[in-house]
Amino acid sequence: MKRLTPRYANWLQHRQNRVRKRTSRRVRVVEMVSSTGVWMAKAANSTSMPKILCFDRNGPETIATLSQIRRRLNTPTRGTLSSRKFSKHRNARPRWTGHYRRFETIESIAPAAALVLAAEYERILHLTGVAGRVIDAERWQPEVIDTLWDIGFFDIVGIPQNLEKPDLQRSFAILPMRSGHTADSPAVSALLGDLRSLYPGGSDPAEERMLQLYGAMVEGIVNVVRHAYPENATYPFRPINRWWMTGAVDRENRWTTAVIYDQGVTIPVSLPNWEHYSGVSRRILSAIGLVPKPDDPRSDGEAIAAAVEESVSSTGEPHRGHGLAQMRDFVNQCREGYLRIMSRHGEVIFGEGGKLEIKTHNVSIGGTLIEWGVLL
């Protein structure tokens, strides 16, 4: 029998504590789905998702949650089951999986938040060949499944077994997201054509307003292609140099949403390279009393607002600023609506009649998001 030395006694005590902790955990057997297949796994650690994923109704928590998902998707988990190495044997013992987020607690997800979520999963699939996994999708709320199904989320991660698209009679409809890496104006035209088809009873939104929205969205995509992914730039996570966009319609209220998202260097970082940066820096200095360095995100909201205002007043050769001006001017032509620009930590909301709301969040949106919400 081994002699019970103080060191050995201490080791036994630690082992007993580990065993007690392991057996006291509430273990669940969950269904895991990724692009490589479906398998069962044991899980003990999970975090509930917010009830509402929406930049309007639950902005700070939505941004923080998407940031955490982005970080986890880009960080391999040690000591857990690899999505490439699951057993196909029907009687195989479930393996342990790492910490995961319970999507079943989401009750509502807005188009812009759904687009950012789907884009993050598509980036991982593009870089690794394996999409991020989803767990117990059959427990998710029908409205959430319906929205993510329509936007194309399950085309990326794979459709779980026995999961069917809910047959919901909703006035809300969202389009499949489109993605590209060129200034693809036909893609914008096709998206707006699909938006028209969502209006009830053959009614059609105002032709002039749709043309203005087309111009604003084309400017948004051109900006991504020209400025979002410069060579030799530094990124928090490896990008795939693409843009994503989607649209949605609330048929009952005739409310139209259009969203463009990229995972590039963001507006605050690229500002010093703008042709009219001197005007932008003067506006920032006037607003907050100093001009922050490009790597300082604490005044990102003011930086975005200054960039848009300078683009409105600037003249001369075409540059990114004129695109921002056209994006904002579209909202001023509508009866009701807003333009939301989120880039890195900053958020600016332009309403009709010159209304302006500036915010700076604790975490980044992971790129630049442009969202129009208008009554057509």
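That was protein one. Protein two is written in the same sequence-then-structure order:
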Amino acid sequence: MVRGSLAERDALNKLVADCDSVVHCAGLTRGVTRSQFNRVNAVGAVACAEAAREAGVKKILLVSSLAAREPGISPYAASKRAGEEGVLEAAEGHMDVTIVRPPAVYGPGDTEMLALFRLMGRGLVPVFGSSDARFSLIYVEDLADAVVAWQRASVPPAGILELDDGQPRGYGWSDVSAIVSSIIGRPVRQIRIPATALALPAALNTAAGLFSGYDPMFSLGKLRELRHRDWVCRSIDSQGIPGWTARYRLAEGLMRTPGWRDRRDRT
């Protein structure tokens, strides 16, 4: 273990010394302003890439976010895109670069998605945006396996990879409702959450973040992300990671995710 931060170049140099490859998966998800997110998601990512380049590292994997596909939607998304562009520039001519844009990641140990799954486990599926919105998901073990497969590949895939669980066209809210219902053994009801009901708390959190130093998870930027209609992964400019395919669709992944079902559903 090397103690330090992305802002400490000596620590980064020690971290990447004598490495053949680097996986950069640090990221900031809570905040309000572009500068807050950039500090980790852009400047920090570039600092890691520069340290790796100077240490003679041969290849680097940047774990970005599907949000980077829509940089205008939020400060977080913009910072993720900036991190991608900065790492590509820092590595050009020196290292092979693979960028992975995962969609929402869930599974054991997750806290961000767990609250939503718990609500579903009680028979309620909140619909935050359009009823015809579609989105991809990936189980955490599948994403970890993808990183291992990248590490083992003799020739790392270049470019941007949007990795998901293999579900064609992703999921819609009706798909999620049916899957959850089949797991808990009772009907699940969709609840449409109007934009006005979410706008006020998002605005209050954003204001608190601007004026009090509070770093909210739910902000106006996050609200725009939640209400976006198309978060389905698609091929960008690569065929994928050699030797890797996702093993768990949502039904299997939820069954392997603890802590979200009512006790009566866990038999």
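The chain has a mean pLDDT of 91. Keep this in mind for the problem set.
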